[in-house]
Structure formats: structure tokens, C-alpha cells
Design goal:
Length: about 350
């Protein structure tokens, strides 16, 4: 069975082009499923049947697994079963009729338009008014700044030892700080202006940005490519970052990456999440993640009259059902429509 799991992981990564995170999750589910099957006296993969799979899900539910987790595990079982049947490891696709609990789809938390504007403009305010807005300085990046020299008495004057070779001088700290602010502004404008996922934003290269048409080429889940437009504020932020910020941080590890960390390599998604949440907290906004900005962008597009299919394409959803969650409307918008349209309002 272990060999089958390894082959399944290779199929997900090499043929289905799934992300490393998805592969890990599916493989963990399959290992759990096969471990349960072994405890139910299944000595080989061909002994797997629908009853064993249902028993496995029932056991997961009794141990407190959430409905969303159960739905994903059932999907993992169906994917594995279909692959094993095609590979000749199972006589039938035993999980083809395996039902899964319908996960509750909670409405995403979104920022209001003015809150989103305050968030994306936070780096500019931090640079312009550091003393008037305590705590709004850029969140820490992935490289700490140089330590201050230790305090102590001044040594007595004496012969000066011969100077050794000086290390190459890097950019001054104030230049790095200014570059980081420009990077942060470009990141926030991109996330809100395009609605891309944080992994997609950090994966962008300079060559993926078409300045003349104001679009970016994005590689999403499963390696699917799409073209996403962005607006003038994002254009200005990108221009300033590429002209004045990126050259300061660029180093040997930069290559073609669009957004850089303080060490000069590609910006890490973990650091990018810290940047977004740090600026949201500093601006006095609710806790906001990069995915929260994606939710906000989608909701504001629909509220502004964008077509659902167009939003689906922008977000890179393979199914329209994933986009329909954003069709919820606020009470204020509902009341406004009622007052405008109903003759007895």
C-alpha cells in the first residue's frame, strides 16, 4: 500500500500539477484511510470497499472533524479511488458513490471600500508621518536591521592599528526602509487591485507585468494561466517600486522576481501575510489577511456592477459556484435598492 501512496503522490504532483500543499493534504488523508482499512482487516488495496470508506468517515466525525474537513477527506478518497482503478490497483472505483457532508459556506469577512483604501495607502502614510501615527511603520521584513553599536566609555587615544580590507558597502538603512515601504505599497495595491492569491502575487516576475495594457499574467492553481487587469493606483505603486525600490533591494538571488524581501530574494508568502496584517492593525482595521483583501476585491467588483463570469475569470475560480459566495449584499445596499425601486418605499 505504501508504494501505491507514493505513486498517487507522484500522480498529483506530476500529472495533475497540484501544489505541494494539496499533495500533502491528499496524501495524509489517504494514509489515514488506508490505516483505518488495515485495522478493519484489509490486507491489500483490492480489499478496499465502500463500507470501509464510510466507516472511516464516520470515525473521523466521531473524533470531532469539522464538516469542511470531512468533505475534503471524502474528496481525497474519491480522487485516490478513481486513480487506483485506472491504474489497475482496484477492480472497481469503490468511492465513486461516496457521499460527503456538505460543508457550511460562511460568508467571508470583507472590508468596506474606505477601509480597503485606508489599508493600501497605509505604507505611504507611514513614510510621510511616522511621528503622528505611532505603530504604522512597515512591519518587520525577513531580515533584521543592523544592530546599534554597544554603549560604553570611549577608549583612550592610542596608535591606530592598520586598517584591513573594508567590506563592500550596502545601501544605507534609510534607503532600504524607503524601498520596503514602496514594496509594501505595491504588494497591497496588487492584492486589492487584482484579487490574486498571496502565493500568486509572490510568484509574479517582472516579465509578467504588461505596463502598456495594465494587466498581469498570473499562474494559479493547477498551473492555470490567466490575465488580470489592474488600475491606475496599482500602476503608480508598481512604477515607483520598480524605479526607486526594487533596485535597492535587488541582489544575486533576485533573478526575475517582482516583489523582493529584504535579503533580495523573492518575497515569501509568510512575510507578505505579516505585512498585510501589520498594516491593518496599525490602521485600526479589523484583522485582515491577504485572502481578506481578495474577498474584499471580489465583493466590491460585484457591488460595482461587474458580471459574475468576469469576476470568476479575474479570481481564477474553476467553478462558478466558488464565485457565487460573493453575491451576498449588505443590508445598506439592499435598503438602497428597495428605496430606489419600490413604489411604496
Amino acid at each position: 500500500m505504501r508504494e501505491a501512496v507514493d505513486d498517487f503522490a507522484g500522480h498529483l504532483a506530476g500529472v495533475r500539477n497540484r501544489s505541494a500543499h494539496t499533495v500533502r493534504a491528499y496524501v495524509a488523508d489517504v494514509v489515514s484511510m488506508l490505516d483505518h482499512a488495515t485495522r478493519m482487516s484489509c490486507t491489500e488495496l483490492a480489499d478496499l470497499d465502500l463500507g470501509v470508506l464510510r466507516s472511516w468517515l464516520a470515525r473521523q466525525r466521531t473524533t470531532g472533524a469539522a464538516r469542511s474537513s470531512l468533505a475534503r477527506r471524502a474528496a481525497s478518497a474519491r480522487t485516490f479511488s478513481a486513480w487506483a482503478h485506472r491504474a489497475g490497483l482496484l477492480p472497481t472505483d469503490v468511492a465513486a458513490t461516496l457521499a460527503s457532508p456538505k460543508a457550511r459556506r460562511e460568508l467571508p469577512t470583507v472590508l468596506r471600500a474606505e477601509q480597503a483604501a485606508a489599508l493600501v495607502e497605509a505604507p505611504g502614510r507611514s513614510a510621510a508621518e511616522p511621528d503622528d501615527t505611532p505603530g504604522t511603520a512597515a512591519p518587520p521584513d525577513d531580515t533584521p536591521g543592523p544592530a546599534a553599536p554597544p554603549a560604553g566609555p570611549v577608549p583612550p587615544a592610542g596608535p591606530v592599528p592598520p586598517a584591513g580590507p573594508m567590506p563592500p558597502a550596502g545601501p544605507p538603512d534609510d534607503a532600504v526602509g524607503a524601498a520596503v515601504l514602496l514594496r509594501d505599497r505595491a504588494l497591497l495595491e496588487l492584492l486589492y487591485g487584482t484579487g490574486v492569491r498571496i502565493s500568486e502575487a509572490c510568484g509574479l516576475d517582472v516579465a509578467d507585468v504588461d505596463h502598456s495594457r495594465r494587466v498581469v499574467r498570473v499562474f494559479g492553481k493547477g498551473g492555470r494561466e490567466r490575465t488580470v487587469p489592474y488600475g491606475l493606483p496599482a500602476q503608480r505603486a508598481l512604477d515607483e517600486w520598480l524605479r526607486d525600490g526594487r533596485p535597492v533591494l535587488a541582489g544575486p538571488a533576485t533573478r526575475g522576481a517582482l516583489l523582493l524581501g529584504a535579503r533580495g530574494g523573492r518575497l515569501n508568502p509568510t512575510t507578505a501575510r505579516r505585512i498585510v496584517s501589520g498594516y491593518a492593525e496599525a490602521a485600526g482595521l479589523p484583522h485582515t489577511s491577504p485572502h481578506g483583501l481578495r474577498h474584499s476585491a471580489a465583493t466590491h467588483l460585484l457591488e460595482g456592477g461587474a458580471d459574475l463570469r468576469a469576476v470568476q475569470e479575474i479570481l481564477g475560480h474553476s467553478s462558478l459556484a466558488s464565485t457565487q459566495i460573493y453575491t451576498h449584499v449588505s443590508v445598506e445596499r439592499l435598503r438602497a435598492a428597495y428605496r430606489q425601486a419600490h413604489p411604496r418605499a
